[in-house]
Amino acid sequence: MIGYDTLHIVLEDVGGTSRRASILTTLGSLSGSALLRFVGEVDGDHRYVGATFFSPRGAVPMAPREEWAPGLTAALQGLRREIEEHGWEYLGQGEQPWDLYYRRPRWE
Whole-model pTM? Predict the structure, then answer.
């Protein structure tokens, strides 16, 4: 029988992944910037990790945009290309440009 795995692309604050990462990101980043990346998750497990890029950190959290977070588009395109090369089929998009869903057959 064939089942399907579902992959979801999410935006991750690299500094928020661990205390050590947070300290290194703060010390190595531009003033007031967050180091972000896109990850492809299946059931909460990271399967794919995209390139990092900086985005300004504001008093009110806002979704990053290419205009002020250069590299966002290239990072997302690179991750999508890798995912699709591994046989994942695009399913659809949520509210954000990176809120993407894919599926791939899983033999049970």
Answer: 0.82
**Pairwise CA distance, residues 31 & 45, whole Å:** 31
Domain span including residue 80: 2-107
The count of domains in the chain is 1
Phi, psi (deg, nearest 5) at residue 76: -70, -45
Q: What are phi and psi of 41, to 5 degrees?
A: -115, 140
Please state, in angstroms and rounded to a whole number, the distance separating the CA atoms of residues 29 and 92: 33
User: What is the per-residue DSSP string for 3-58?
Assistant: EEEEEEEEEEEGGGS-HHHHHHHHHHSPTTEEEEEEEEEETTEEEEEEEEEEEE--
pLDDT tens-place string over residues 46-100 = 999 999 999 987 767 788 999 989 999 999 999 999 999 999 999 999 999 999 9
Residue 6 half-sphere exposure toward CB, CA atoms < 13 A:
10
